[in-house]
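Dear colleagues,

For the upcoming journal club I promised to circulate an example of a predicted protein-ligand complex. I picked one with S-adenosyl-L-homocysteine because it came up in last month's discussion. The inputs are reproduced below in full, followed by the predicted structure.
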Amino acid sequence: MNTRLPSQDWPTLEPGWVWLCGAGPGDPGLLTLHALNALRQADVVIYDALVQETILDWASQAEHIYAGKRGGKPSANQRDISLRLVDLARAGKRVLRLKGGDPFVFGRGGEEAQTLVQHGIPIRIIPGISAGIGGLAYAGIPVTHRDVNQSVTFVTGHDQSGNATSSLNWAAIGKGSQVIVIYMGMKHIGQISASLIAAGRSISEPVAVVTSATTDQQNVLETTLGTVEADILKAGVEPPSIICIGQAVRMRDVLNWQAQAVGIMPTNLDPLGRGRPAETA
Ligand code: SAH
C-alpha cells in the first residue's frame, strides 16, 4: 500500500476540494493512477453501488460513505448527495466522490459537478473506464473494428422517470448506428429491440448482454435481436448489464481472451468472413 507512484507532480487533494473520480467498471486494476493518487489522500470517500468495495482498501485512512441503492433500500436522493458533498467540502474535508465507470458517462457526474461549482466548491474531474468500452473489452468485444463499424452509439435504456427513453429516436438509431451499446437497458429491452427491428434491423443481428463486466461475476449472454428479451428472462440475468447490438459481437468468437486464458481456444479465427488476416489489407 505504500508503493510510491512513479515520479511526477501528482496533484494534491487539498482540504475543501471535491474530486469526482471514475472507478472503472469493476476490476480494481482498471483504476487510473489519478484515482489511486486520490484514494490515498482522501479524508472521505463517497461511493456508489457499482463501485467494487475492494477499491476502498486503497483509502483505508478515509471515512467511507455509501451513497447507492442496495438491498431494496431507496436510492440516496441525488440532491442530498450533491449537498452532502458541499457540506463535507465546506467542513474542510478532502472529498473523493467515487463513481462507477466514468463519472461523465450516464453517471450524473455532470450534475454533481455543476452543483459543486454553483456552491463555489473547487473540483477536479478524474475520468474512468466506462462499462460500455472496458466492460465489453473484457467480454472480447471491440466497440469499433475496421471491418464492422466506423461509429458506435452509446445510449441509456431509460430516462429520468425510469421509463423507456422517449426522447430518443430509436428508428433513427436503428437506421444510422452500426453498433449500439445500451446502458441500463435491461428493463426496456423488449421495447427497444422491437423498435430497432421495426426500423429495419434484422432479428438475427447478434447481441451480447455482459453482466457484472470485469468482476469475478462476469457473465456473457450471446443472443440475437429477435430473442434478447426472452433469453434475458430465461437466463435470469440480473443488472448491472451492458448490452451490445451489432456485428462487433461476432468478434467475440476470436477475441474471447478470458476463455483463451483458460485453454478454450477459438474455433473460428475469421468470424466476419473477410478471408484475410487482419493488418494485411
Ligand atoms: N458511469 C458508468 C455508467 C453508470 S449507469 C460508466 O461509465 O460505466 C449504470 C449502468 O452502467 C448499469 O445499469 C449498466 O448498464 C452499466 N454498468 C456499469 N458497470 C457495469 C458492469 N460492471 N457490468 C455491466 N454493466 C455495467
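Two points we might discuss: Residues 78-90 form the longest helix (13 residues). The chain is about 25% helix and 15% strand.

See you all on Thursday,
B. R.
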